[in-house]
Amino acid sequence: MPTHFSPAEPPRTNPAIQELREALPDEHDILDTADVFSLLGDPARLRILIALTQGRLRVRDVAEVVGASESSVSHALRLLRAHRVVEVHRSGREAHYLLADSHVRALLELAMDHVGHSTLLHEVGHDHQAGRSCAEESDS
């Protein structure tokens, strides 16, 4: 027979579980972190960020490196700047973009290193030319 807890007596939580729960970041930090990963989840923005690991670049230079229009690169950089992932340094009419800090660089490097350790998964589970995962193909 299932045990029912009365409202006056809350269920007992394993102390180890309670300690782990209390160690979780607050909801605001979780949401901000999810936003950063969402930004990194877009291949076009990721290409831009990887290009910026080489140093400061102007919008037109980023566009040329990643093979995108200046307009789309400018839009992506505005979004990345709004989330403090990149920053801009202006000199007269010139604007140079760069990664906001070493944390962004480290996150990119870790992600790329991880990809290097999981190439078999990508070969099996993703059609790079079509840009679709095998799961997406089986759904269509």
Give an account of the 3D structure.
This protein has 140 residues and is mainly alpha-helical. It has helices at residues 15-23, 27-40, 43-52, 59-66, 70-82, 102-117, 119-125, 134-139, and strands at residues 86-91, 94-99, 126-127, 132-133. The strands form 2 sheets. The protein has a two-stranded antiparallel sheet. The chain has a two-stranded antiparallel sheet with strand order 3-4. Helix 3 (43-52) crosses helix 4 (59-66) and helix 4 (59-66) crosses helix 5 (70-82). Mean pLDDT is 84; it is low at 132-140.
CATH homologous superfamily (4th level) name: Winged helix-like DNA-binding domain superfamily/Winged helix DNA-binding domain
Tell me the strand order in the biggest sheet.
1-2
Structural class computed from helices and strand pairing = mainly alpha
N-to-C span? 45 Å
Shape: elongated
Give me the CATH fold name: Arc Repressor Mutant, subunit A
Number of domains: 1
Largest sheet: 2 strands, antiparallel
Instruction: Compute the average pLDDT.
Output: 84
Whole-number radius of gyration? 22 Å
CATH hierarchy: architecture: Orthogonal Bundle
Query: What letter string, H or E per element, gives the SSE order?
Result: HHHHHEEHHEEH
Can you tell me the CATH class? Mainly Alpha
Low-confidence stretches: 132-140
- Sheet-strand content, in percent, reads 5-15%
* Count of helical regions: 8
- What percent of the residues sit in helical stretches (DSSP H or I)? 55-70%
Give the total of beta strands: 4
